[in-house]
Target: Cobalt ABC transporter ATP-binding protein
Amino acid sequence: MDRTTLELRDATVTVPTGAAGTRTILGPVSLRASERRITVVGANGSGKSTLLRLLNGLVTPTSGTVTVGGQDTVREGAAVRRVVAFAFTDPLSQLVMPTGREDVELSLRRSHRSRPERAAAAQAVLERFGLAHLADQSVYDLSGGERQLMALAVVLATEPRVLVLDEPSTLLDLRNTTLLRRTLASLEQTVVLATHDLDLARDADRTLVVDAGRIVFDGAPAEAVAHYRALVEHS
Model:
């Protein structure tokens, strides 16, 4: 799969603070990336989640631009969201139907108008991720790891070119984190992932360190993690 270029040009996000004031929570950030695996680390409140949400238009820049494969997230937001899938920290934010099968079928409703075709496509997705045996269970009966994998199956069913994940291992134990890492390693998509798990952060081609709304390091994962550790130790 050809890599999709992600580009931010002086992207800034501000929020109102009352009395006509504003506060900058991210930026300005300029970045051009096309690596297969990109991880983002930073403290809570550093701006890394805002950075991720810029990539599919969940958040739009107050100033500057964000493009994915040359498509602007503001002017061409719907087109961007067709190629960029977003997975939230809590999989129950993604799983809105009673069962995983129904969620996968729901995500396929636009690409497969016929119910039999949609059902067959959903079955193929579930089998690909080894989830067919769990497909008809209540999502509330699944373990944390099973829910996370089911949520990934839902967002990947439409075959996006880019997958963005916001702290996907936060609710997982070691076994399920290992399973998640193995699943992510098997994907052809470009993956951009924010995490507090520094081992997971190293599973990348490039790592960004975000602090106080700015990218303060951009480079090799091991060096980025070392920079982040030093930043925390001296804060």
In short: The chain has a mean pLDDT of 93. The longest strand covers residues 6-18. Helices lie at 48-54, 77-83, 100-107, 115-128, 144-156, 174-185, 198-201, 221-233.
